[in-house]
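Hey forum,

I'm writing up a methods section and want to include a predicted complex as supplementary material. The small molecule is zinc ion. I've pasted the protein sequence and the SMILES. Can someone with a working setup run it? I'll credit the forum in the acknowledgements.
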Amino acid sequence: MTDRISCINPSCRRTAPREKFPDSRYIICRGCWNKLPSRIKDRWNAIKTRRRIFDRLVRKPKFTVDVRLEQWRRIDRRMTIAESALDASILHFFTAGESPAGLESFMKEIGIDR
Ligand SMILES: [Zn+2]
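Reply by user p_vandermeer:
Happy to help. Structure tokens for the complex are below, copy them as they are.
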């Protein structure tokens, strides 16, 4: 295993040290971040804010009671799904240009939308 993690954009060759981002599968470099449409950046910021709030609340003693455990797990699962969907949409943004023209609409038409 390498000690560097790569940028989410497959055509970008930038990497970052893993010890700086131990929980991340990807980084996004400044150059690629600037290429993203504001719709994706807004979603990113909303998800990161929500994650920070969650991480802060889950440590509060009044919320760490056992009855809350299943609720926290459920919220955590939903946030993980949202984060994966965001990763997928960023990846799609960077790779969509490489698909042959017309493939996208054909896949939508037959119901295999990425
Ligand atoms: Zn990059």
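Some notes you might quote in the supplement: DSSP finds four helices and two strands in the chain. The first helix runs from residue 30 to 35.
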